[in-house]
Amino acid sequence: MNGSLNKLYDFYQPPPPAWTPQTAAWYVVFSAIGLLILWFAARTIRRWIANRYRRAALRELATVPTQQYSTLLKRTALAAWPRDKVASLNGSAWLKFLDETSGESQFQHSPGNQIEEIGLRPITLSADTEQALRTLATKWIRRHRVQA
């Protein structure tokens, strides 16, 4: 019995597979993926920097009284559009601008049409109206589209 065990040989172990790609096409694929990741990161960072005025406006919206909403929206618009296009707007032209840039017509209808009036005259608003105006201002700050 001892003699038959001496005739056994160890199993042949092949070398482990290589982790490096075997063809040049994989290097092209990895390079394309790397460039895509870099492009996406640069685009995300650029958008984040470009939208810092929105974040600042949203922070300020949480602290200002309802009477200053129109002023805050005007300052936010001045950060995004040229001064000659926005600074002279008031009244119905201002409300029309807000509607056009948001893609919805909520500022030309109640309660959105009161946003400029409450800044000029003290008006007593219900809690629901104040909340609706805050929601409208928040939506506009977050969703307005700047066309160059």
Q: Write down how many β-strands occur, each being a DSSP E stretch of 2 or more residues.
A: 0
Radius of gyration equals 31 Å
| Average pLDDT taken over every residue | 87
Q: How widely separated are the two ends?
A: 91 Å
List the domain count as a whole number.
2
State the secondary-structure class: mainly alpha
Quaternary structure state of the chains depicted: single chain
- How many separate helices? 8
Instruction: Estimate the strand proportion.
Output: under 5%
Order of helices and strands: HHHHHHHH
Biggest β-sheet: count, sense, barrel?
A: none
Q: In terms of per-residue confidence, which ranges show pLDDT below 50 for 5 or more consecutive residues?
A: none
Instruction: Tell me the helix content.
Output: 55-70%
Shape: elongated
